[in-house]
Every structure is written in structure tokens, then in C-alpha cells.
Amino acid sequence: SGTPPDGVRAAPAAVLRFRGAGVGWAARGSPQTAGARRRASVPQKLAEALSSQYGLNVFVAGLLLLLAWAVHAAGVGKRDLLCLLTALMMLQLLWMLWYVGRSYAQRRLIRPKDTQAGARWLRGSITLFAFITIILGCLKVGYFVGFSECLSATEGVFPVTHAVHTLLQVYFLWGHAKDIILSFKTLERFGVIHSVFTNLLLWANSVLNESKHQLNEHKERLITLGFGNITIVLDDHTPQCNCTPPALCSTLSHGIYYLYPFNIEYQILASTMLYVLWKNIGRRVDSMPQQKMTCRFDGVLVGAALGLVVLAATIAVVGVYMIHIGCSKSQSESALTMFYLYAIILLLLMGTAGLVGCWIYRVDEKSLDESKNPARKLDVDLLVATASGSWLLSWGSILAIACAETRPSYTWYNLPYSILVIMEKYIQNLFIIESVHQEPDGIPEDIRTLRVVTVYSGEAATLAASGLGSQGVTGNGSSATNGNLCLQQASSKEDREAGWEGVEGTARHPSFLRSGTKRRLLRNITAFLFLCNISLWIPPAFGCRPEYDNGLEEVVFGFEPWIIAVNLAMPFSIFYRMHAAASLFEVYCKI
Amino acid sequence: SGTPPDGVRAAPAAVLRFRGAGVGWAARGSPQTAGARRRASVPQKLAEALSSQYGLNVFVAGLLLLLAWAVHAAGVGKRDLLCLLTALMMLQLLWMLWYVGRSYAQRRLIRPKDTQAGARWLRGSITLFAFITIILGCLKVGYFVGFSECLSATEGVFPVTHAVHTLLQVYFLWGHAKDIILSFKTLERFGVIHSVFTNLLLWANSVLNESKHQLNEHKERLITLGFGNITIVLDDHTPQCNCTPPALCSTLSHGIYYLYPFNIEYQILASTMLYVLWKNIGRRVDSMPQQKMTCRFDGVLVGAALGLVVLAATIAVVGVYMIHIGCSKSQSESALTMFYLYAIILLLLMGTAGLVGCWIYRVDEKSLDESKNPARKLDVDLLVATASGSWLLSWGSILAIACAETRPSYTWYNLPYSILVIMEKYIQNLFIIESVHQEPDGIPEDIRTLRVVTVYSGEAATLAASGLGSQGVTGNGSSATNGNLCLQQASSKEDREAGWEGVEGTARHPSFLRSGTKRRLLRNITAFLFLCNISLWIPPAFGCRPEYDNGLEEVVFGFEPWIIAVNLAMPFSIFYRMHAAASLFEVYCKI
């Protein structure tokens, strides 16, 4: 054992190279790509920091301009804002064209894909929202033509650019959302992060427009109800000239505000997909065979029927609410009472469904899949982070009820409503997190066996070979290895024993989930929650916001602070519902 | 090859068990712990979600109460706020006592530690800040005694509780910051996350008090300078009765505000350390031997001397600024001009130093260590996130200069200053990120070889054994394996070739960093940047805030919006400097 065998002498270099790449070798696409990567001079961490800091600066600068416009800063007009957004979109367009062109030129190369990113239903929903966004763009162009006398050209250029941007971006996401870019090219990193933050800025812009609109409507209602003690200044941006056919312009203007919620969802969905693409740059993926996800719609009659009833009822309630609110004091109060009672019942149902779902999983005691998966991690983080937005509002309501001096009877419903909102999101998040981390049942038996054999034989062989390796090393005088190897051996043995326990355990609980009843129950629960979340997305997105109309919080916190808090938190609260619905759809397909 | 050998048949159970544990087996402490973990019924992901959602709700509810107090919400007094904070601290105290007691009872068990968490210098600086926090508590008690006639008892109970809390928490962090909790006990997760958010709330409370104080001072200056067009309401919380020795009370009140910045740093440092503890719960650690980090202070005379000059100059500049600002219009302007000129020169120096540091690393072309490390990841994320706070303010200044109608001469200095702030933080972040990801040179040669041999022999053996495994599987009729294995073989071969290239590469650039000159240069740069960041922490922390006094942004954005933006972004900007200094200290010790 004086001289180590050839293989061992070759090893140091191999490992240095392995550590140097930083990313895995498992899914390397082609020799060319790998070669390019090896020669890249900027390490991954540094390239990430370079591009993310650039993106954050673009975002922060854009946000400042948005803020300046929102507070009517001296010298900042809508024109400047639209110019910046148009320029950013143009830049992204150029980059996307370059990327698509380059991909086409190199289409022969085999490139690794992240099979979990950009699921088909996600791309489907983004296409739907993009379609509505393009309609919105057409309405805006119509509006511009009507008021063309007194609007600056940017107001016409912006919607046209936005439409082109939307079309190309949807094409880009269909073709490249799953890409794993391994070449570490600076241009690619910067392009993707630029796209992420451009979409986020477009999102913030839409949210701001929508908030201004909602706030104006709220102020108009307050004027109708005769609240004189609040200084009300309408923040109206109607142009100062006449539209050629006046009826058309007012229709367009109304239509625009009904389409905004879809545009908002489109922008945020696009930025999350692009963010996953960015996180995937230079990532090592396991070349695990991905089973096709097929959504079957049988056996969920009860859940779907209940969900559809909820959907219909919500639309009815929102309709009644919008008609009655702001007409007179008593009508407003009855509309609020109706909404709160309805929401309390709905949230109770949803919370119960979520609890039952969690309980089924807990009974089953299946292990969770905790492998690395940027798309899933982002989904979970977004769920919790955006729920915080609505938790803020709910805690505000609770605090307001606790501190208010006079409490009209209808405001009491606000307390259970707010508590239930907090509880329901808490439970639903747990249910979704547990669901998306379940190992899919759909993996065919032979692939399972294969995976098992590969891992096991690898482990056994490592043992054998490390015995060999340690010979080589002990020749070099290091004795620490032996301890290390003993530990490995011991733990491996323990694994095997535990394995036998596991087999007995599985035998004792004969696969619980696969038994039809439990699975059908879970599918029904998921379908019901999916439709409920879609339903609960509608009220705040289309202007049914009891946080405004309730009045209690405004009295306690003051008009301005509460309005600012609501306008900052509400977009996240709305996004939560749509995002939860999307996650539940994924869960549904998985079960 | 009809029936697989015995080992293969045993495998499925072993693997199920392996996947089931979800966390690694490498660092399992003792059979007892492992057993407890295996029987834990709540999977890690779920336990994380359970506790983090609880923590977020506590935080959000506390923030709402802070907001309510800040905007003088009807019915919310300082008493309610202090009651909540005291209750949260009490709960944390109970939990810490329980944890410390249990750890003492189980002190015989070998528990894994995260050697990278809770570095000694970190615990040292937290002790220093905690000491000042306790002095602050004493001053507050003195203030309470002086005004005891008209202050509620909570104002006396709060500082006492806070002092006890601080003492125990520092003891706790000294003893347990490196713990890796493997038992997945719900109580532990909830306790740690409760501590994280309690400290964050205490931080927010201190920041709010400090901001109110700064804002009052600013308003007083504006009154002195005769700005009548802004409606100025002093937000003063001086009690309505007389203090027994009046001179004492005013001294105490002044002293309190000079100590707040240290208290703020203490709270945020404590919460980051606790957060790392929370992230480490149930984590798998590589049992890598950690070399002792020893900081030597030789050969950095130039960097340290330059840094100390900067420190002294900054204190002088801040002193002059504070005396001159608000006295008269011309004196204010000259103070601002002086500050901007000084800051521009300093930032230019720092930017250059950072660029040189980055260039040295780039020339060296060493690979980066990208292994998992929650403490480091948090550090890097915090650097970029908190820098965004000051980027927001800088972009605000740039926008204000671009849009302002009249620009007094001294405001022009604001433009290069703001641009340099953005650039300097961008460069400095890159330098720190690259530094903390460097593989430490200190690992002895034999451990390197050992690591190399272990990895390599494992890989080769996997190849051999997977050939064996595939025989068994092809017997079952699956042919996908062969492709997979070929890929593995191919990539492994490629690794080996690449490895040889790597060896040649290393030979060509003979270890650049270890050559004394480069290393000494890096150490000097780091020492200089460390002292510069400490210097730049002083001005905003002690009330030298040109963003207020400059006046330009207030005119463009309006008083209220700009003040809100500054008060939200400034705490992060201040924290950035202290955090960057801490990171640079770590880097210094590493080089």
C-alpha cells in the first residue's frame, strides 16, 4: 500500500474541477455548453449578485417614479412614467428576440430542462390573462384616439408597445420557461432579471392605477353619504378635452377598469415564471424521469358542485353589494352585513375543508419530498408572504374593533370575519404546503424499483470502494479516514435496519392514500377550495372592499394612514387568492 | 440475472426510510435523538410553515399596534404597546429558561453544531451592544422615576423586563447560537421563531422612537429657519408633569437618544442570530472539521491608519454639521456642502478599494465554495436587501434633482453623492459576496487530500456498482437505465479529463492569493473598508441626515411622502453599514 493506484492519483484534479464548476454534472447537456461554462470567468454567486443588484436598482428607481407620480410630485408627469416603462419593455423585447434567435440557431444541442417549472396549466392561464391584457391594450388605444387632442403621444405608444411585449413574452414563456441556462453568459442573467423587474414594475403600475380608481370610487361614496369631516380631494385623471363620441369614451373607461384585475394577475404570473427561469440558471438538476401530469375530472362532483354554488353565490353577493353600497347609510350597512355573514359562512366551510385535508395527510404519515425545486419553493414562499398582506389588514380590523369608542352593530361581524380570514389562510397554507411536498403516487412501479436499486447499489459500492480508498490514504499516513468510514458503515447499517422497520410499517398501514375513498375525498376538498379561492378573488379585485366601506378602521387609524395601509396590502391579498387557486389546481392534478 | 441478489431485494425499504427522514444522516448525534426524530409525526416542511406563520402573525399584529401608536390612533396609547412587548418578552424568557434547563439536563448527549453560525466576534459585538442596551434601560428607569407622577407603571416595567430579557438572551446566544436542534419538537420551533419576531418588534419599536425623535429635531430646525408653508406639528411625548430635578431629566432624555442606535443594532443582530438558529433546526450538516479563525492584526498598518483617519474625520464632520445645521440658512447650506464634499471623496476611495479587491479575486480565478450555509446566505441576502433601502433614497434624490424647478448650488453636490452611494454599495456587496464565498486557505493539505479521495473513490465505485445494479434491473425488462448509466459514465470520464486540465491550470497560475503581496493588499483593503463602514454608520445613526436637511426632495415629493419614505428606508440603510462592517470583519479574519 505504498503507492496509491492510478485512479486515486488522478482524483485530486477531478475533484477540484468538480468543486470548481459549482453546479452539477448530472444533467450536463452537451460538451459545447459544458466547455463554455468551464471557461466562464465569473463564478455563479458573483454573477447572481451582479444581476440581482442591477435588477433591484431598476425596480427601486421605477418605484420611486411611480411614487412621485402617485403623490403628484412637482415636475413628474404620467408621460415620464410611461416613457420609462416603454423603454424598459423595448429593452426586454430586444433581449427576448436575441435569446429566441440564438436558441433557434443552437436548436440541435440537447439542453437540460427543469420539468417542474412552467407547468402547462400555468402557461395556459398566463395565455388567458395575456389575451385579456391585449384587449385592455386595444381599449386603451381606443381611449387615446378619442382623447387624442389633449393626451401626449406616450399614452398611445405605451399600450401598443405593451401589446407587442405581451405577445412576444407569452411566446417566450411557452418555449423557454423550462430552460436551464448553463452557459452563465452575463447577457442572459441580466436579460432575465431585467424581464423579472420590468414585469414587476408593470404590475406595480397597474396596481397603482387600480388603487387610484378604487380610492376615487370610495371617496365618491363618502361624498354621497355626506361625510364632511374628511377632506376629500378626488384624484381624477380624466383628460381636459372632450371625447369625440362621449358615450364610447365612458364605456371604454369603464371597460378598462374591469379588465385591470386580469392584467395585474398576468404581470405577476409572468414575473414569477421569469424569476424561476433566473433561479434555474446554472442549476444542477436530477435527471429524474418526470411523469406526465394529466388532470382527470371524474369523481369530484360534490366538491365541484359545491364550489360552483359558492362561485355563483359570490357573484350575486358582489353584485348586490356594489348596487347597495354608497346609496344611503342604511343600505350600505345592510350590504356590509350581508357580505360579512356570507364571508363568515364561506370561510368556515373552507377552514373545515382544509382541516379535514390536513388530517387525512397526518393520518397517512407519508414522508415528504424535500428535494430542491425552485418553482415549488417560490410558490410556497409567495403563499406565506402574500398572506401576510391580508393578515396585516385583518389585524388592523381586530385592533380597530378593540379600540373603537362607538361600535355600530354591523361592525361586530367584522371581528369573526377578520379572525376567520387569518385562520383560513393559515390552515389553507398548511394544506397546500403539505400537498405540494407529497411524493407523487403516479410514478410507475418499475421506475421506483430502479431508483431504489441505483441508490442502494451505489451505497453498498461506496462502502466497498471506500475501503479500497482508505487503503490508499492510510498509505499517506492519515488515520482520520478510518473513523469517518466506520461512521458511514454504521449509519448505513442502521439505515438498512430502519429500512426493514419501514417495510413492516408499510405493511401495517396498507397504502392509505391510494385507497379510493381518501383520494376521492382529497380531490373533492381541493376542487372545492380551488373554486372558493377563485370566488374570494372576485370581491376585492372588482371593488367590493369592506375594509374601505366599513368606516371603523378609518375612524380609529385616521383616513390617510388606513388608506395607505390598505392600498399597500390589498394587492398582495388579491394575489394570494389567485396564487392559492393556481397552487390548488396543481395539487388537484397531482392527487 | 433472473432473480436479483439478496442485497437488492433488501434495498427498497432502506431507501424508503432514507427518503422518509428527509434530513441527512451524516451528522446524526446520538441514537436517542435519531429515534425521536424518526417517530416525529410532523414533517419538517410542515413544522416550518406552522411556526413561521405563527411568527409572522405575531409580527404583523405588533407592527399594526406600532403603526396605530405612530399615527395617534384613537384609543391606542403607549401603554398598550408596552404591555404587548412586555408580554412577548416574558413568553420568550420562559421559553429560553426551559430550553437552557433542558439542554443542561441532557448535557451528556453529543449534539451536532453548526460551526459557521454565531461566530465569536458576532457574539462579542452583541455583548457590547447588549451592555449599552442595559445602560439605556437604566436611564429609562431613571427617567420613569423622575416623571413617576404622570407616567403609567408600564413605562417602568418595560425597561426592567427588557434588561432581564437582554441579559438572558445574551447568555442564551453565547451557549446555544450554534445548536442544531434535531428533535423537531414543536415547542422548540415555536420558541425560536417567537424570539426572532419578538426581537424584530423590539427593533421596530426602537426605530420608531428614534425616527420620531429625529423628525421632531428636523421640524424644530425648520421652524428656526422660518419655513411657514409646511404645517408643522411637533410629535412630542414629553410627560405633562414636572421632573423632580429638572436638569437630571433633560440629561437622561438626551442620553437615551444617543444610546438608541446601539440598542437598534443589538435587536437586529439578535434576531439574525436567532433566525439562523431557526433555519438550522433539523438541518443536515457536513461533519467538516472547522479551522479556528484567528484574527491577526499585523501588516495592515496602511489600511488601518487610513481607516482611522477617516473615522476621526467623520466624527469631526458630523460634529461640525450638527452644530451648524439649522442655525441659519447660510450656515445650513455650508454644513450640507461640507458633508457632501467629504462623503463624495470618501465614497470614491471606498469604491476604488472595493474595485481593486474584486480585481484581485478575478485575476486569481479561484473557485468559490457554494456549499449550503444558512448563516452565510442570510448575511448575503441581508446585504443586498438592506442596500435596497438606501438605493431607494438615492434614486429619490436623483429624481428630485432631475425634476426640481429651482436648484440651489449646494443641491448639485447631491447628484454625485447619490450616484456614488449606489455605486459604492454595488461594488462593496460584490467584494463581500466574493470574499465570503472563498474557500478558506487554512484547511490543512492532508484534509484536502482526504476529501478528494473520498469523493473520487465514491464516484468510481458507484460506476462499478451501478453496472452490477443495471444487470439486476435489465432482468426486469427496463432499458432506460442503460442510457442513464452511460451518461453517468461519460460525464464521469469527462470530469476526470477536466480534472487534468484543472491541474495544468493550477500549475500555470501558481496560487496567487497565498503569495504575500496580494494577501496583504486584500487585508489592507478589508481593514480600510471596515473602518469606513463604521464611519459611515455614525452620521445617519446620530442625526446627520442630509436627506432631511437638503430640502430639495421635500419640495419635489412633498413633505409627508418624503418623510414617510425616509423613515421607512433609513433604518435599513443604517443597518446596512453595521452589517457590512460585521461582514468585512469576518472577511478580514478569513484572509
TrEMBL record, chains A, B:
PANTHER family: PROTON CHANNEL OTOP, PROTON CHANNEL OTOP1. It comes from the Eukaryota. InterPro entries: Otopetrin. One of its GO terms (biological process) is inner ear morphogenesis. Keywords: Cell membrane, Hydrogen ion transport, Ion channel, Ion transport, Membrane, Transmembrane, Transmembrane helix, Transport. This is Otopetrin 1. The chain crosses the membrane at residues 54-75, 81-100, 121-145, 157-174, 186-204, 258-278, 299-324, 339-361, 521-539, 559-576. It is found in: Cell membrane. The keyword Transmembrane applies. GO terms for molecular function: proton channel activity. The keyword Transmembrane applies. It catalyses: H(+)(in) = H(+)(out). It is a multi-pass membrane protein. The lineage of its organism: Eukaryota, Metazoa, Chordata, Craniata, Vertebrata. It holds the Pfam family Otopetrin. It comes from Nannospalax galili (Northern Israeli blind subterranean mole rat). One of its GO terms (cellular component) is plasma membrane. Belongs to the otopetrin family.
